[in-house]
Amino acid sequence: MTTVTRAQLVEHIYSQVGLSRHESADLLESVLEMIVSRLEQGETVKLSGFGTFSVRQKGRRVGRNPKTGIEVPILPRSVLVFRPSQILRAEVNGESTEGLATESDES
User: Fold this and answer.
1) Under DSSP, is residue 33 helix (H, G, I), strand (E, B) or coil?
2) Which InterPro entries does the record associate with it (predicted)?
């Protein structure tokens, strides 16, 4: 398993777009900050051809400690949900993306 780091993304932006490394880092950080900001506000973030990030609220529930069997309350919380686009799903599965429309094509 390989992890994609911010430094690798910055380097890719630098080599593909032609911005300086510093400008590439600033660009990446501003995009990530915008995504995080929207998610914090409870908005859905769609990246066409990639997927959709959203925040879902999970209610209070009762869980069970698997070791002791004792019931434990699980407090309400927010969870981040990612739904990949059909295009991303097809590419990951090695399938053809031909004929799959991006969300911008559907408008």
Assistant:
1) helix
2) Hist_DNA-bd, Histone-like_DNA-bd_CS, IHF-like_DNA-bd_dom_sf, IHF_alpha
Run of H or E including 47: strand 45-47
pLDDT tens-digit readout, 48-102: 999 999 999 999 999 999 999 999 999 999 999 999 999 999 999 988 877 776 5
The pair of structure tokens assigned to 90 is 């097809």
Q: Is the pLDDT reported for residue 27 higher than 80? A: yes
What is the average pLDDT across 5-21? 94
Contact 48, 86 (CB under 8 A): no
Determine the Cα–Cα distance for residues 57 and 37; give it in Å rounded to an integer. 17
- Residue 52, helix vs strand vs coil: strand
> 66 pairs with which residues across the strands?
none
- Among 78, 76, 44, 79, smallest CA distance to 60 is for 76
C-alpha span between 23 and 27 (Å, rounded): 6
